[in-house]
Amino acid sequence: MDMNNIDNATTRRIAALQARVDTMKEHNYYFYNQPIEEILDGARVRVNGRIMGMYASYSYLGLVGHPRINEAAKKAVDQWGTGTNGVRTLAGTLTLHNELEETIANFKHTEAAITYTSGYVTNLTVISTLMGRGDYVFSDKINHASIVDGCLMSGAEFRRFRHNDMEHLEGLLKNAPADVAKLVIADSVFSMDGDIIDLPKIVEISKKYNAWLMIDEAHSVGVLGKKGTGIEEHFGIGDVIDIKMGTLSKTIPSVGGYVAAKKDMINYLRHGSRAYIFSAALPPAQAAAANEAFKVILDEPWRIERLNENTKQFIDGLKGMGFDTLLTETAIVPVLCVTDERAFELTKQCQERDVFVLPVVSPAVQEGMSRLRATVTAVHEPGEIERAMDVIYEAGKRMGMVK
Question: Does residue 136 share a domain with residue 193?
Answer without folding.
Answer: yes
